[in-house]
Design brief:
three-stranded antiparallel beta sheet, 2 helices, mainly beta
């Protein structure tokens, strides 16, 4: 699967425009489916080995507003833990029966899908767009490709404008513009 940059480069002053842009992009994507400046309290990310519902190693995770978000985990277990308000958008899923949802906060967007007919929402991805975002490994928006390689090692996959690191059932996608990190995202790669 090729990573697709979800956001364009923008500063803190452009955060609201960026969030609206993200929602519009997903609205257009989901509409076409047929079959198929306040700083947050805490922004960090990293990787750990945890056990998901299907006993897979999940890998990367992200912490926002003191809440740990792990792609592949149940959204309902953490949804009410946030202090910060968020907006949401939903659309019929292209890949599954049920709904896909996007929960947009000031500095991140959390993507979910319904796993089965019980309406259990699973975190499918997390987009991090804040210039204040830092992972435990030291990743920060604004780093150049050389700094990223020195810090993270060689990516598992590399595409024009993107480095992909894989751990367990997650991917850490780093999006670069002119060899500079502009945003990063976490993606669940399991089922």
């Amino acid at each position: 699967m090729y990573p697709i940059p979800m956001v364009l480069h923008g500063g803190v002053d452009k955060m609201k425009k960026l969030q609206v842009c993200l929602l519009l992009i997903f609205a257009f994507l989901f509409a076409g489916c047929s079959e198929q400046s306040v700083e947050p309290e805490l922004i960090s990310g990293g990787s750990e080995t945890t056990v998901a519902d299907d006993s897979e190693e999940t890998g990367y995770y992200f912490v926002y507003d003191s809440v740990t978000l792990t792609p592949g985990d149940k959204w309902d277990l953490v949804k009410d833990s946030f202090k910060e308000e968020y907006t949401s958008f939903e659309s019929a899923s292209c890949a599954y029966e049920g709904m896909d949802r996007i929960y947009t906060f000031k500095s991140i967007a959390v993507h979910t899908y319904e796993k089965d007919s019980d309406n259990i929402e699973i975190i499918s991805g997390i987009d991090v767009t804040s210039e204040n975002a830092t992972s435990p490994e030291g990743l920060q928006i604004g780093m150049d490709a050389t700094q990223i390689r020195e810090l993270m090692g060689e990516p598992d996959d590399e595409y024009t404008g993107a480095f992909v690191y894989t751990e367990g059932s997650t991917q850490l996608n780093l999006y670069l513009e002119n060899n500079v990190l502009t945003t990063f995202s976490y993606e669940y790669t399991g089922e």
